[in-house]
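Morning!

This is the sequence you dropped in the shared folder:
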Amino acid sequence: MLADSDTRWKWGALTARRLQPDARLDGYLLRGRATPTVRQLGEVGARADSLREIRGVDFLDLMERGAHTGDRTGYDVLVLACVGGAVQAMLHGLRHAWRAQAPAGGRRPVVVTGYVGVVYEKLADGLLLRHGADVVLANSRHDADRFRAVYQGVGAPDDGVVECALPFLGGAPYEAPNTPYTVVFAAQPSVPENREGRTYLLRRAVEHARRHPDREVLVKLRSKPGEHTTHIEELPYQKLAARLPGGLPSNCRLVYGNMGEVLDRTDLMVTVSSTAALESLHRGIPTAVLTDLGIREALGNHHFLGSGCLASWDELDAGHRPEPRPEWLARQGVAADGTYATAFDAARDRVAALAAADHLPPLTPYYTPRTAPGYLPGILARYGLDPQGAPLAGHVESAQEAAGLRKFARDTVREAARGAYRHGVQRVAPAIRRWGQL
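The structure's back. Tokens below.
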């Protein structure tokens, strides 16, 4: 399994376990701006049998040679849990790496990909970047229909789309209010993007706590300052909270940790459009999708139209508890009706059948140098590949790279560069934008 952020690691690792529960899982972290820390990996609660941070070109080299850490000589299934551009690059790179195997009847791994959560933006772009994998998982019937429509619309094969569900749904069904009654606001790294919107949401959560001193209000955060997730967070809620007049009341606090564990003590889940809403709805926890900043595509809360969950902080302050509509839940793969146990059967059967085949054809992404000559080369170059999927000169490292001082120095420089990049994204870039607005 190859992942490039904490949330995609969680989706990829748990998806792999759902597809082949008894198989060994080797995890690879694609080196980049969102490479998770050890703390982040521990928090998501999805573990692999081995873990290695790696560059894309080196991962492709391993796949070509069929050799890697441990005593295995090849994989049966490869889960690509990455952003769309990375998936597209790996598909072309794998096609090139396996070019001598598939035409000759050699076996290769089954390649699986999908989305980590709610698909509310860049539907066509993201889907076409994932086209070419043997299996493209759709987290709901709604998504499966949309995915097939996009592929059919460009004349690309859509038989790889398989309906399943999010792999991290679970936990005990909600029964009765906790003591104290607990409201959880699930914050998101990039929704909303601006300071005004983020400060407003935090202020309203704090005001809810002050209006209801008998309740506990938890602001659930994804990362600590300096850490990155799937999306860049330029305005961390920790810093906004530190600047609130009067600070946080005693019954309101910032929390981290595994979302499933937080949901164990949640009586009301509040968010703008986080996938945590689907986890909450799966367990039958009252869930509110905020309308305070409008119902807009940029916020992602438009995805919840018809759900019965849309509400404002004013309504929640007055005691409103949203009631979801069963028909909407069924189409969104929430499986609150008990069907979750069979949600992965079709995907598991498809992958098993492909893995047992004597021969799999070469990977055939929709995007090629002919269909997207002004788009594809730039994506591939970002990951060190030429338009044919071969490593660019200067990007290949020997698998037998010298250890010792040289390796230590290289890794030290890389960590320093990554730290500088993160500092630039979180501190310098926002400051420059603010100066530009003066």
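Headline: The CA atoms of residues 88 and 130 lie 6 Å apart.

More detail when I'm at my desk.
O.
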